[in-house]
Amino acid sequence: MENILKYINDNREEFVDELKEFLRIPSISTNPDNKKDVRKCAEYVKAQLEKIGLENINIYDTPGHPVVYGEWLKAGVDKPTILIYGHYDVQPVDPLELWTDPPFEPTVRDGNIFARGSADDKGQVFIHMKSIESHLKNTNKLPVNIKFIIEGEEEIGSVNLDNFIEKNKDLLKCDYVVVSDTAMFDHDVPSICYGLRGLAYMQVEVTGPNRDLHSGSFGGAVNNPINALSHIICKLKDDKGKILIDGFYDDVLNLTDKERLEYSKLPFDEKKYMEGLEINEVFGEEGYSTLERASGRPTLDCNGIWGGFQGEGAKTVLPSKAAAKISMRLVPNQEPEKIEKLFTDFVKKISPDSVKVTVKSLHGGKGAITPIDSPGVNAAVEAMKKGFGKSPVFTREGGSIPVVNTFQTLLNAPTILLGFGLPDENAHSPDEHLNLNNFHNGILSIAHYFNELSKI
Amino acid sequence: MENILKYINDNREEFVDELKEFLRIPSISTNPDNKKDVRKCAEYVKAQLEKIGLENINIYDTPGHPVVYGEWLKAGVDKPTILIYGHYDVQPVDPLELWTDPPFEPTVRDGNIFARGSADDKGQVFIHMKSIESHLKNTNKLPVNIKFIIEGEEEIGSVNLDNFIEKNKDLLKCDYVVVSDTAMFDHDVPSICYGLRGLAYMQVEVTGPNRDLHSGSFGGAVNNPINALSHIICKLKDDKGKILIDGFYDDVLNLTDKERLEYSKLPFDEKKYMEGLEINEVFGEEGYSTLERASGRPTLDCNGIWGGFQGEGAKTVLPSKAAAKISMRLVPNQEPEKIEKLFTDFVKKISPDSVKVTVKSLHGGKGAITPIDSPGVNAAVEAMKKGFGKSPVFTREGGSIPVVNTFQTLLNAPTILLGFGLPDENAHSPDEHLNLNNFHNGILSIAHYFNELSKI
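ok -> structure tokens follow
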């Protein structure tokens, strides 16, 4: 590793200069005017993959923007195969006037590189490229088998990626997926995200009388669908945030003592959290901390509700209909389809006969987890320790990342999220930037990671 | 009375012909193009009041359409003074193509007179005019003191009437108000409406975090304002329709045994009622019938609710705000201001500290009742018996009639609603009509009513 690390340290400035080239290409995937730029960026990525020494490099066209692929599979069948995922497309730049420097003219200030795409995700893709280069340039080999897939539609919902993965399951077959497209927990806190929540998103519609009624003439004698819907929602979760749906918690993979210990170590300031949201109290399932509640435990939220008169003033209507969107964040091993059924059955059970209630599922996805004592995670810990000079923290994300779900479903591969951005680097806002220390330590960490993974 | 009744019977056809003249004037108050017609109609009413023998007749201008007033106060101070209220303006006629005959060309078919305004309210105003005429023409006097006020803005919310009444409190001072602007309970069921519900209309707004959040990142740790609002609404009324607000029922004037007996006599078909609304069950406070629940008991209804994402599909938002419009129908002797305070206090009490809740009052009005064993009502019973040849039923309206509230508040006078329309006479629709038997029996009843009231 010595030569490799020396190479990374010697080229610290050079790598930043090279990154600038990548950042200069305005690969805004959502803007039709930039279609050629996105293509140009794919060609740039292809050239980079060639330059760093990958093989079997290809630009795969899709109905939208292309996917670039490269691999190096000569480590041997006894070594793990790692699929690295990233994206080369970027967010739009509006409002342009809020940028200190033009978004596609990369500038270094105060140890950060400013440009659209610096943190999300070109800088992080470049970390992997330069780690691979550092190995291949110095040793002519990689300690593990590498597959590298970089797409051009992440910022528009990865609309063609699922289809691409489905079609190329064999090409993408791997033992672990590594994604660097998220942020570290905080400044100077290297982080390994090992879990994501799933989702079951439902719509509940309540119909009372067949038409809107005068609340004076009928109020008191005919059930009101808004009141009935409120009663249903109220019965889904108690005043303390515990979900009351029969069987809801049955399959929940409970947090282990080790996980809870890791949660407790996270540098989290609850007072600041509350101040930032201007709330007087946090709220949630008893017996769990705020961070555990927000990512390690399942929950139920109304995402929308509507019915009756929403205008100014008073209209005395007893409406015919009311509806709500209600979603549940799931944790491993809750199955969305099973939860959807439990939800539907429970809502039907608690609905009064005086109204008609329909329930439908709008969207669902599984949670994901890579156990923190699994070999892939242990290797990441060792790598981050060496790359950053300190132990990483373990985090779980409360939301879902659709591509991780796809990897899990189609490739049956666990994903480890090694983010080198920071929460305040304006990923989707003006003056997006990436801390160059994290960029450098990221390259070191990933170079070490390949090495650590080879020991598995 | 003999001469008077003979006069009414002899002029049965003549009165209908005279009514046609009134109905030919297109006094649509909401349409600026008809402003002159509305004025012309006020002039017509004035001329009629002169013709039937009232005195001190005046057209009072308002910022909108005028109010017409006339009186006959020579019955003596020992006799009661009755204020009769009605309106000479009418609803628009659209859709015109659904009328069998033009709306302002009155036509008699199958014992009904068809024209816009026939039931609402020119025909019913005419009943009072012809009753007064019948007395004064035959006896040169009325058994009671009469004040007659006919406004031209009822169909646009009586926007200037409150101010007129406020300014003319002495002019309008009376012992009873009689309003004929409602419908009988059913065909062949003469009805006395002796009570109305009041209203306290509130808006509840719940604020959680200071901005919309990602439900994945924050769900489970931050209270959701839609869920919190649903919990609040759920705690206002139990599953059986009983209101749980502390002190809510304290001032409720309970239904008397006599009232409940009268309710039970009403020809009401609950199966048909449910079929008409397409509901499987009626719903409401235990221990009361559907009609009692809908008019004799207070209730609480959500009139509107909104928050979060209401569009198609799934958006994983934990919204910052949610709000609902919640109104309570009140019965005598509940005071709207007191109920508003009880509601506000209770909502504050049950609101969790994890959200901010504001409550405001949008509108309120007292209920009204004229006890069914009061002299004014007893006199109406006797009069209706004689006019229709059968005993009237007693009804209470579930809604409020704002002008009744005004009479109660400003004149401190109880109101009796003697409606001679029918529920299916298309008051605000094409082919509005009035049954001519009810028109005739109405004139007889009111002529008797003056007489019966003089015996109080």
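Chain B touches chain A through 81 residues (CB under 8 Å).
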